[in-house]
Amino acid sequence: MKSVVLTKQDSPLKIEDRDSLEPSEGQVIVSLKASALNRRDYWITQGLYPGIQYPAVLGSDGAGVVSRIGANVDESMIGLDVLINPGLNWGNNQSYQSSDFQILGMPGLGTLASEVLVPAENVCPKPEHLSWSEAAALPLAGLTAFRALMKQGLAKTGDTVLITGIGGGVATFAMTFALAIGMKVLVTSSSDEKLSKARSLGAAAGYNYGTDDWGKQLKSEHGMPNLIVDGAGGAGYGVLLNLASPGGTIVSYGSTAGAPGKVDLFKVFWKQLRLIGSTMGSANDFDEMLDLVSRHNLRPVIDCQFEMENITDAFEQMAESRQFGKIVVNQPV
Amino acid sequence: MKSVVLTKQDSPLKIEDRDSLEPSEGQVIVSLKASALNRRDYWITQGLYPGIQYPAVLGSDGAGVVSRIGANVDESMIGLDVLINPGLNWGNNQSYQSSDFQILGMPGLGTLASEVLVPAENVCPKPEHLSWSEAAALPLAGLTAFRALMKQGLAKTGDTVLITGIGGGVATFAMTFALAIGMKVLVTSSSDEKLSKARSLGAAAGYNYGTDDWGKQLKSEHGMPNLIVDGAGGAGYGVLLNLASPGGTIVSYGSTAGAPGKVDLFKVFWKQLRLIGSTMGSANDFDEMLDLVSRHNLRPVIDCQFEMENITDAFEQMAESRQFGKIVVNQPV
Q1: B266, exposed or middle or buried, with CB in 10 Å at 0-12, 13-18, 19+?
Q2: Residue B102: C-alpha distances to residues A53, A230, B146 (Å)
């Protein structure tokens, strides 16, 4: 099998031939058709992730065909077109992941390879309307967005949601899902180009958070949103506390801008705010996410696609954060 | 009518004779038997509350007898023994108060007086098992505790709740209610005497937050609580983020220690925490709180009682923060 290998921090990614994988009991091998990058993969290449083990085969997102199965796996799975739920060992509690929870790709072998080994319960039939590239783009960011918006955010048709950092994988899926269920979607970005793209996809309005008074402008034009989905945190979090309507919810699925400078608890209790953390999602969340995608024929927004041999270019694209939607890596046909 | 009047900031409280109150349509006059202090009253005397208007008649808590009624109020209310819901104009939404919401006592005339005027819907029959002093001690802090614990915290029988700053009115009611529904209750205080008192009332354990490793000690002895009810915020809030179990909830009803130094959003999203603000409560919350109190024959913990003429002593007792439970002010018999 071909694998993209990170041998140590800051070293270039290498494509290596490795031994084929052998499925144990309950496991399947997926021969991958396409994979996709997540910010997590990039951070690991930068040494900015807890518990990195080298050599690492990165990649959490993938779609392909079940080619081999271990003992006690239904034989009818062989040949099935699937995408992979990258959450391993979530456990039985819907409200949080178990302490054994892992994300596919480091420390285990990931999807930036010609094949990957996963528990049989982690593969799901590929929604028929999706191409291989689209299917590969969906899992991690789609799951994270679905849980943040629907499960933790309790998003409701007709409500207004503010989604920060549009263009990012999770933010863009959150917009897609919110529009699908009939929400009014407001977005932010530091790029006017991304805001314009979001509007063309259905966002009601976009605000450049690099401007001083974007919060006031949003408030005067659209009122206070009762749901905010944020992956940034940082100094901008204070603006979100101001913007959230009384009784409103802010779901955090990341903190790319670091810890908030200050959280004004007076605002939190007087406005009866709900600040909810969310990460990835359960197998149940994944099934519900796929159901939403299939019912509405939703398609992931793909920014660009690379062949596996050009994997370094794919990571450079992510390093620049200019993408709108997912970066997909296709296997040679 | 006699009233305790604050004429300006830092001036001594004076007892004045004022004109009797006249009920308008839908209003009732309650001849008060007892009142109780809240931290809010003390803050107003210190000028530490938004929008203070002088002269002010303070006091949010009271119980007494309906003595006069305005037009369109059922005549059967006259002579009824009642306690008062101090939340005015909550509005129709259970999840937050309307922008017209006010708390009884500044800017309106409060309960530190021989009588008080309130909308008829703000009086409820006094639970029969409560004395006048106990009934007066219940409303504001009981309502705040009930909403924080039960409505925002979704407290469940058998779960563990950590209640910070035990001895404070809201914290002490939260403990009473949590024990009544069969929760395991852990408490904190900077006073070992208060911790000891809390244990004698049913708390499973108490931790002095003035010690360095109280959080670690709690964790090793009782695991991580899935619900925390906090009125302090401040630097200690970070410890609460560590202590809350994955999927756990921290309800904030106050921030007497100021804004948290830092909120680690990574912890919030990775642990799938729920940080919920709560203040006072709706009329519906008030009814449910009274129902809980009546079903379980619960009695407010009263720290000390004063006659109205000694009101200055009552405020001094609050200034020292040494009380465990409520400070009650009784009318002359």
Answers
A1: middle
A2: 57, 32, 19
Contact A269 B255 (CB under 8 A): yes
Identify the DSSP state of B149.
Answer: I
Q: How many CB atoms lie within 10 A of CB A275?
A: 28
Q: What are the sequence ranges of the domains in chain A?
A: 2-140+300-330, 154-277
CA distance A310 to A300: 22
Q: List C-alpha distances in Å: A153 to A275, B59, B92, B148, B319.
A: 9, 38, 22, 20, 41
Asked if residue B333 has pLDDT above 80, the reply is no
Please give the mean pLDDT across all residues of chain B: 96
CB contact under 8 A, A273 and B276: yes
Q: Which chain A residue has its CA at the smallest distance from B245's CA?
A: A96
Domain B2-140+299-330, CATH? 3.90.180.10
Q: Kindly provide the ipTM of the predicted complex, given to two decimals.
A: 0.94
Mean confidence (pLDDT) of chain A: 96
Residue at A331: amino acid letter: Q
Q: What is the pLDDT of residues B157-204, one digit of tens each?
A: 999 999 999 999 999 999 999 999 999 999 999 999 999 999 999 999
Contact B271 A277 (CB under 8 A): yes
Does the pLDDT value for residue A107 go beyond 80? yes
Are the Cβ atoms of B96 and A252 closer than 8 angstroms?
Answer: no
Q: How confident is the model at residue A253 (pLDDT cuts 50, 70, 90)?
A: very high
Report the distance separating Cα B57 and Cα B55, nearest Å: 7
Closest Cα in chain B, distance from residue A138 (Å): 21
The CATH fold assigned to A154-277 is Rossmann fold (3.40.50)
CB contact under 8 A, A278 and B269: yes
- What is the count of residue pairs from A and B with beta carbons less than 8 Å apart? 100
CA distance A324 to chain B (A): 23
In contact, A177 and A298? CB cutoff 8 Å? yes
Q: What's the whole-number mean pLDDT along residues A311-318?
A: 95
List own/partner pairs for A209-215 with CB under 8 A and 24 or more apart: A209/A164, A209/A236, A209/A239, A214/A188, A214/A239, A215/A239, A215/A242, A215/A243
| Separation in Å, CA of A228 to nearest CA in chain B | 14
Residues of chain B that touch chain A, judged by Cβ-Cβ distance less than 8 Å: 93, 95-97, 152, 233, 237, 246-247, 252-255, 259-260, 262-279
pLDDT higher than 90, residue A291: yes
CATH architecture classification, A2-140+300-330: Alpha-Beta Complex (3.90)
User: What pLDDT is stored for residue A104 in this prediction?
Assistant: 98
pLDDT over 70 for what percent of chain A?
A: 100
**Per-residue pLDDT averaged across A179-201, rounded?**
98
Mutate to test the interface with A, among B269, B274, B279 (most CBs of A within 10 A): B269
Q: What angle separates helix A192-201 from helix A169-180, to the nearest 10 degrees?
A: 30
Longest CA–CA span in chain A (Å) reads 61
Contact A3, A16 (CB under 8 A): yes
